[in-house]
Amino acid sequence: MGRPPVADRAGEPAPSPTNVWLRARTLFTMHWMEGALLLGAAVVILGALGIGRFGYPAILPFMRQGLALTNTQMGLLTTGNLSGYLLTSVVAGFFVAHVRPLSLVTLCLLTLAAALALTGWAAGFPWAFAMQTVAGAASGGCVVVALGLVSSSFSRGARGLATGLAISGAGVGLIVSSVLVSLVQAEGQSSAWRQSWFSLGAAVVAATAVSAFLLAASGVADGATATVEAPAENRSAAYRSTFVWHIAFASTFFAFAYVSYSTFYVEFLLRETGLDQNTASHLWSMVGVSSLLSGVAWGWLSDVWGRKPSLGLAFLALGTAIGMAVLSHAFVVLLLSAALFGITVWSTLAIIVAIYADQLPPQQAPAAIGLTMLVFGLGQVGGSFLAGRLADLTGSFRAVFTIASVAAFIGMAIVLLLQLPRGREAD
Questions:
Q1: DSSP secondary-structure letter at 292?
Q2: Mean pLDDT, residues 185-200
Q3: CATH fold of 232-420, please?
Q4: What's the rounded Cα separation, in Å, for the pair 120 and 76?
Q5: What pTM did the predictor assign?
Q6: What is 24-224's CATH topology?
Q7: What residues contact residue 411 under an 8 Å CB cut-off, 6+ apart?
Q8: Other C-beta atoms within 10 Å of 259: how many?
Q9: To the nearest whole percent, how much of the chain has pLDDT over 90?
Q10: Which end of the chain is more exposed for a tag (fewer CB within 10 A), N or C?
Q11: Which of 52-66, 386-400, 406-420 has the highest mean pLDDT?
């Protein structure tokens, strides 16, 4: 006979070695599955946002020369990408209720990869516009699905940090796409811009394979979601929610401020501060580096301090970052402005996704995320036009940045007036 287990201090038998091993293996498996989901979502965001949405600006100047595009056509390429992104951001919340998330996100990533690669085959503007619209649509679908999975799979106390970690993939993807394009363009060939598109498409294919493996291993994205059996009226209730529209409205002010700074900061440095191209580029690179901390830092802060005050602070930080560039052209101030902007750039996305996961049923959160992304995108479209128009009228970016900074502060005030549904979260 084997030796019986020794009783513990409570008088109960101590767990057998077999039971201890099973418990340890179960705990490890649970953590592995959560980690696989989080890393898989980050890789999806890396491909969809970092490469799919923010990889093309570095190629466009060379593509313009290759296809003899006008400034208007260059702007329309960006508009097409953003329009596709906005459209899918809304409808993806519906499709995620009927299609396995793993299948949907894989389809979107492969579509994005194909659209990026096919952009490299463009012989003129119409084909390039069509492919960029498809690329934007595929990118938007990936983001909604990935963030919806993360926000619904983690406990409330860790939800903000988890969402922030997933969003940090965008910063990594931005760096990856910049390196790839730089390496290809360094060869100096006239067709380098085409090869750059091919390389971005290949990078997204790699991201698809890695994310599919990780999401399948997590077991969460492979099965049916909790939204499948939900009535359509339950899913659409998010569109009638007052607090969702309140947050979406506030996000337009963030979008206006964000797009004004990100679009014209480098040109502002060159035209109004006396810095050379190399120094201006280094300052802008600070945005990319510091953005790696953005989602994680703000997501964690919202877990610890509360969603609403953290969201208000994010608007305050953005307004301060932009205002610093207006108040002083000293190099250290411009450096701090870029760094603070980078740290803030993904803040609202991380916090807002966590808010919706806190306050809404699982079947409504993706719809709320999509709606907010749509309104945010409209703010970007309108903001970029108004900022450019104002710069043309005044001949300076000082007024543009001043208004952008004020817009961020107004957005902060709107956030502080937010009333979350009673009994769901106490700030």
A1: G
A2: 84
A3: Growth Hormone; Chain: A; (1.20.1250)
A4: 17
A5: 0.72
A6: Growth Hormone; Chain: A; (1.20.1250)
A7: 250, 251, 252, 253, 254, 257, 315
A8: 23
A9: 29
A10: N
A11: 406-420
